[in-house]
Amino acid sequence: MLAYAEDAITDRLKEVLGKSVKTVETLPGPWDEQSLALALRQVPGVYVYWDGGRSSNRGKRARISAVYRIYAVTGHASGERERRRGAAHQVGAYEILQQVVPAMSGLNAGTGILEFQGIAVLSPASAQRKGITVYEAEFLADLAWPPLKDVSELEDFAGYDGTHQVGEAEYESSITYEEEE
Length: 181
Hints:
By secondary structure, the chain is an alpha+beta fold. The longest helix has 16 residues. It is globular and about 60 Å long. The protein starts with a helix and ends in a 5-residue tail after the last strand.
């Protein structure tokens, strides 16, 4: 259910933004300095983050009022105004939001509909010094929790892949578990 909703959101964003952005990706955690470092390499870009949710208590089936945050990130050497409004060769944050908000409002995200909640400016001084502007659009979706699966339908845990930040360096790790015979 959560993966389906996330896929529905990223697919729709890719559809409405096309080649105007370099990337549409999901974030594994909330917006922070590490997210900022990632975004620096892929501007303009759009990032999606599922920020949890609370029980919505509608009906008998378990439901969650899920919070989705969509970040519009732009960088332009000509300055803050161009990062917000765009320029001849690069989209601005306002233009991204003008596509994102109507495209996401009312989107069927699997078992629930996205509802627009508002926009926040997330351009701290550290981002501005690096020439980046970040805006966050927040959406809620009342999602029905899927029914319990039979354990035999679940995949065995087979491995782990991860990227880790240690100081300024980034490391990748991968572990594959093999079944004992």
